[in-house]
Design brief:
By secondary structure, this protein is α+β, with helices and mostly antiparallel strands. 30% of the residues lie in helices and 24% in strands.
Length: 170
Amino acid sequence: MLDTVYHDFGTGYVPRWHGDIIDPAAAYLVPERHTLLVAVDEDGEVVGTGALDSRGPLHPPNPWHVAERYPSGATAQLRRIYVRPAHRRRGIARRLVAELLAFAVADGGYRSVYLHTDPAVEGAEGFWRSVGTVVHDERDDPGGGQGIVHFDVPLDALLPSAVFPYLIGR
């Protein structure tokens, strides 16, 4: 996850945005309705991550109508869906998201699934458009906002596949 914020985002570690990366257990493994998945290749190398929590997007920095549409508690927010560049376009992100959606469905208390992405990350926007629906594109805002694209993902968007060459575990 740190590789992503340094190499893909170019921001480096920013505590107010990335505290969960430093203590993922507290953010995703201790809270009952949260989870963190890790994809590992046959050599044991971590090649991808995906997380889900019950916190809706905050305003600010997100637009008010987005925060209002996705309240904490009823919203499963997808986070930290990262795949190492050398392992992209192999279905890893799709499998991670499918497993996270299955977790949200099994929880029974989520009414919606939300995520936001930085369209500057290669392949991110196209992937999310194939899974969900854009609810707000900040590039269309006066001044471009944060440049973030916000998505709604149906709970039944993806079904986990039975065969997958990467081990994914919590």
